[in-house]
Prior knowledge:
Number of helices of chain A: 18
Structural class of chain B: mainly beta
Largest sheet of chain A: 2 strands, antiparallel
Distance between the termini of chain B: 37 Å
Strand content of chain A: 5-15%
Shape of chain B: globular
Strand content of chain B: over 45%
Largest interface: A-B, 119 and 120 residues
Helix content of chain A: 40-55%
Structural class of chain A: mainly alpha
CATH architecture of the domain at 384-471 and 479-483 in chain A: Alpha Horseshoe
Radius of gyration of chain B: 32 Å
Strand order of the largest sheet of chain A: 1-3
CATH topology of the domain at 384-471 and 479-483 in chain A: Serine Threonine Protein Phosphatase 5, Tetratricopeptide repeat
CATH class of the domain at 384-471 and 479-483 in chain A: Mainly Alpha
Largest sheet of chain B: 22 strands, antiparallel, barrel
CATH topology of the domain at 31-111 in chain B: Immunoglobulin-like
CATH architecture of the domain at 31-111 in chain B: Sandwich
Oligomer: heterodimer
Amino acid sequence: MKRIIKLSIIAIAILSLSSCKKFLEETPPSAYTPASYYASFAQAQNAVNGIYASVIALYSQGGNFDDLGLLLLEMPTGQANTDINQSPNNQELLHLSTSSANLYVRQWWRTSYQGIDAANLAITNIEAMSTTAISATQKSQLIGQAQFLRAWFYFNLVRIYGDVPLLTTITSGATGLQVPRNTTSDIYTKLILPDLLAAEKSGLPFFDKTGRVSLGAIKALLAKVYETMAGYPLQQTANYALAKQKALEVINSGNYTSYTSYDQFRDPANDNLKENIFMAQFASTVKSSPMFNWTLPLFTAVSGANSGTGALTPDVTFYKSFPAGDKRGQENQYFFSHYASQATGADIVFATGQHIFKYFDNVSYTNNAPSGKCYPIIRLTDIKLLYAEAQNEADGAPDANSYTYINEVRTRANLGPLAGLSKAQFRQAVWNERTHELCYENITWFDMVRTRMAYDAKNNVFVPLVGYVFPNGQNTTFAAKNLLFPIPQTEIQANPKLTQNPGY
Amino acid sequence: MRLFSREYNNPIGKRAFRSFVVVLFCLLAGIGQALAQQAVSGVVKDSDGPLASASIKIKGTTVGTLSDKNGAFKINLPAGKTILVVSYVGYEGVEVDAASYNFSSPIILKGSSVLKDVVVIGYGSQRKADVTGAVGSINSKIITERPSADAIGALQGQIPGLNITQNSGKTGDYRINIRGFNSINASNNPLFVIDGVIGADYTAINPNDIDKIDVLKDASASAIYGARGSGGVIIITTKQGSYNKPATLSYNFVGGYNSLQRKIPVLNSTQYQAMEKQAYANSGVPYPNFGVLEPDLFNPDNTPKYNTDWQKETYKPTFSQNHNLSVNGGNEASKYNLAVGYQDDRPLSLFTYNKKFSARINVDTRINKWLNAGLNVSGIYNRVRTNDGLGGYGVERMALEGLPYIPVKLPNGKWGADYMHLLGETPPGNSVSNATNGFNLTHRTLLFANTYLEAVFSPSLSFKTSLSGQINSSKNNLAYSGDLLERGQYNNLSASVNTEQNQYWQSSSYFTYKKTFNDIHNINATLGAEWSQTSNETVGTSVSGFDGSYYLFNNLGAANVANPPSSSAYKKQTNSYFGRVVYSLADKYLFTATGRYDGASVFGENHKFAFFPSAAIAWRVSQENFLKNSNVISNLKLRLSYGSTGNSSIDPYRSLSTLATNFAIFSGTRTAGVVQGVIANPDLKWEQTNQLDLGMDLDLFKGRINIVADVYNKVTDNLLLNAPVPLSSGYDNVLKNIGSVRNRGVELGITSNNLNGNLTWSTTFNIAFNENKVLALGTNNEDIFPGPSVLDQIGILRVGEPVGSLWGYVQNGTWSSKEATEAATYGKRPGDIKIADLNNDGAINSKDQTILAHSYPSYTGELVNRFQYKNFDFSLDIAFSQGNHVFNIGTLIQEQREGYANAFTTVLNAWTPDNQNTSVGYVRLYNDPHGSTLAQTSRYISDGSFIRGRNMTLGYTFPQVIANRISMSSLRIYAGLQNFFLLTKYKTGFDPESSSWAPSLPFSYGIDLYGQPRPRIINLGLSMNLK
């Protein structure tokens, strides 16, 4: 019996091994916790680098079948078509029957807010860093980049969705995440402008060839913001003068030079150089750009590394609206209809007609490697034409600079120079040039909703956007509700404080 | 023993080990209890062999004992008492006079044997008669009746409520689930316990090594596994040796011839060309003169030269083989089972295989009268080649999409693929070329060891402590060799290597107390504690740009482009205390109370521990006087149980706030970035399932008919759910305890011995109904799309609906000529697919999607008939499933992209002006100027109910005389046929019981997108025992 008691005591001791609480503590070996991060310049810089990933995502993320998020702003312009009909997301947009379940509608919302949260995280934590961990200059420049990016994400959001929730603090817990929409005007005045004006003073260099945010990009974005605020929906026309001024600071900085040929637009060697003020960064072996593949005709074997999806093609009527002598409308400039197979050299004629040549990446084609071409977000021609438009509006008539800038674009296209136009004539001339010059660059849609005018390609005139019938022959009529995209369906469900945009 | 090396820095493990050693020495130092009285020992048997847990009592006293596993007992006779009463439930009891009985011959009991079965219930075992919970068991005889490369295949259809569906034709690709789905984001898999090791890897265990499998279905049974028991528990016990038994050598062989059960009807060359010409005409494109453009493929008169049957080329018949050798025996002190196995399973997809070498040593020894020890060690090497991940189009897809025009190889020896003028028509590749030149190889090594020490303090009290470990390491190699890639993609030759190392250890210790008081109060109690830890590490890297295809994955450094390598690590710990008391009163009233206090590292700071209790009562009505002498009812037990179990199978570190890494690009160079990772949820806690079970065990006509029936209602609350949060937070979701799911159902199992005599015939029938309903989800009951998505989301989780709801558009045939005007308002033309405008807003968009069908069956079942006549045995096993639906996304592609890929023969019924009453739109080219309607519609959903001839086996056992003559104790040969018929309305896929997604994506059952077919198997087998 004694033995039993003795053994039982030992056995019970085994059962009740103490300090179980410590045994169950968790320490993740593959991830930092926020409390243990933001302690050095390298970490602060990585926190800012993380925001740039959202910029890359906006211009590369897609879905299962020829989906590509950036087509949100191309498909509903009336200037686009597609080789293949298998993406319901593209189909809805092409026919202006966009639903709140559309993948791209969700992606722009989601990725922009991921970028915003990453920026909030970086700004809040870097601001709190001690001077021993990071120098004042480094701190200011890093925060400046984050502020630019945060402003840019919000600028996209208000132009796409209208009123959106304004979040400027770190999301730290699972509660209190349901936030109502703030007005568009509030987003501009409480976030976009303060962030950009602060970034302007952050000490960043005017020009940056690595692909980071530069002072030039900040000023150029300010110009675009002012231009947009002057148009719909805010119509604060006093901002034209500010837009003009910021555009001129960029143009006169001497850091950017206009392309002399359209080959230069396509050449990856000019990434972050020449006209490029801000770009989404890609690299063939790191993360490739989809644009080359997405604008190649479907399965044409032109390129070895890209089978071609043909997802984005030009609308025939829009293609034909390039005047006869316009270089941009000629083969292998902005468009192409046949090309030599990289593998065999045989000429391949596209059964489906004209395709977009703007994103033809000759490096990718030659090397049989994925396209590493960066995607232009802000380029000099946009800013020059923006100057011309803003100056004409602000001053009541075009000045010499405005003529210089628009004629520079026209000369490059082998078109004759303009002179002696009225304010209204000049306005239309700039719009026309923007439409043809900047097509398929994610700019046209924002111009359409900012001016509420559509380019009627059949008749080469600008007509009111609402009521405009697309030239696709399928009764696609632009309705008032189309001025804004819907708030994603899942977001409305997850956040009952949100209201849906009218008509959706 | 690496498990306790310093690098794991685990104080508890070390302490457990030290204590273990201390106990060991103390126990060794102990002295056996002296025996004072006269003792007799004997063996109790029935017609089948030893009878464990038979009751041996001394008449006129309260002294009694139970026989052990081998039927052996030893009892002390008080002075003057010599009459032993030997009894067992369901048997006729006998009285033996110890004074005169010759104990060298066993005491034989007569009667039903179904109740003598011992059920393993976790940390102990019980007589089936005493079980109060819902437990199903199968033994090794049933497990090996249907030849299978893995244990799970052998379990399919055997136990009502245990749902096992074969996911695809790949070896070991199953979905396993007990009594429906009760979790969304945590695992729904049952908990596997192999020889006491919780969560042991069940995928690699050799089915021939298994002695029995017990399935714990209700809360009473599974609550002993507390926090991990809510998916039910499957306990696998491997074969042990036998004491005092001469060694026997067994050899088993099964060979299989695998062939395609049925083909999916696709167009041949002539049909394809006719359809293609029509498509060109309909789309207004002139039909090319292929005779001139592609003279390799077409005759000068533009007729095709080849007519390739790609399914036949891709799914060529294969041979599988399986060899097992074991030695089993024991002496007075030790028993052992040694086994080695070799398996070479060949699924139908070209060149794929699953080879497995396994070895096992199970040894048990009696150190002295009160101390037992044992060791189980097994090692498995598994080498698998699949055709997964070989290019975007995949081998299975190409086998259906491949154009019949194109030959596998041209006369010049080049692969048939990629003809420039057909390039608009077919995706790159050729299924045979893909399978030949793509390599996806996985090596896996699994080492498993389990040691125990059992101290028997007294006949009623014992203590068992065990220490177990498992090391599971795998390496996956993937490479494309040059011939796979066409179109000059030579530079993109790529290869990758991914490895995973997983270590697990577990230390369990528990007391068992068994005692009978006053003849009628029987107590069986267990009390114990357990610790475990899992450590996992992965490393992966991929490269591309080789100068040739020679290296494959064997020289990654030779590539031009190295992608960033990846690695990860995690650890998970658990700590638990458990107890169980089983009390039976007069063998009539049974009570079980079970509780487990469970702690897991994966939960929030203040919610690591939780308590999971359960209770059950059972009434053995047949023991009551009014039924005791019934000729009809030989056994009737009613069971009622209620209890709660938990689920902790989530990723670690989800309660903590962590940062994630990504990358940016500057100057064309990858640069690391850091962003938000996981929102902290310190309140993260256990998912809890409360289950009520009412059951009945009924034996009629002295065991001729045996019925087990159960009804259950199972509600899971505090679902571990990736609850959507507003995306404006920067996050998609947070893992929260929110939401609720209910499963309720009925299970019935009947075994009937129809004929006894020269010809014996028995029938086993089981059927299980389960109804699932989502009761609550997320903060606002948001719809959740759990994936997969192809063109669009396919599955939806919605409150009020079951999981596995299929989502899409409703199709109402096609637009007719008469409806031209109405069609035009939707941008459609006659002959286009007509999608219902459910919300009548004049447009077809995502708002017109709805729930179309449910993928899970309303009931499933199995019918097995077994016959024996003289030396011949025959079994016939038929499975059925009713109410399940299949969403074949592949149909969408193969009915609507003519001139792009081969089509199903259903396009022969496509819309034409003369054939308007059809659901297949007019044939057109993929880039038809008027577009097509590529939407996931109700048309692609089929009723997937089926009846399957699962297995049929005819065996012959050689007469003993002949076996003896060739020095064998037994010899049986058999021939079998698996998957010998399939009755279903589902015609566009290989099998309605399938999914093209991995089982880890839980609600993808019944979604078919180019699944790999499972074979019809002809088996030939041999099993022999040598003395």
